[in-house]
From TrEMBL:
One Pfam family it belongs to: IMD
PANTHER family: ACTIN BUNDLING/MISSING IN METASTASIS-RELATED, PROTEIN MTSS 1
SUPFAM superfamilies found in the cross-reference section: BAR/IMD domain-like
GO aspect biological process, one term: plasma membrane organization
Record domain IMD: where: 1-81
Protein name: MTSS I-BAR domain containing 1
Lineage: Eukaryota, Metazoa, Chordata, Craniata, Vertebrata
Gene Ontology MF terms: actin binding; phospholipid binding
Length: 81
């Protein structure tokens, strides 16, 4: 019974050592991934802000065009009478 427990503990210890070793080797990869993800988030935020500003400007142009049309239509109707 003790031999089985010792064998299982040894196997788990070896597995633990392997996992720790792999994690130590993969640290630079994870660090690079996290840095790139941060840069992507920053760029996406900038893109969203720029798109919102563009849409606000486009809305102002559309509002101006709508107001101009509302002013011109009655004037055209009066000119044809």
């Amino acid at each position: 019974m003790e031999a089985v427990i010792e064998k299982e503990c040894s196997a788990l210890g070896g597995l633990f050592q392997t996992i720790i070793s792999d994690m130590k080797g993969s640290y630079p990869v994870w660090e690079d991934f996290i840095n790139k993800a941060g840069k992507l988030q920053s760029q996406l935020r900038t893109t969203v802000v720029a798109a919102a500003a563009f849409l606000d400007a486009f809305q102002k142009v559309a509002d101006m065009a709508t107001n101009t049309r509302e002013i011109l239509i009655p004037s055209i109707a009066l000119a044809t009478v």
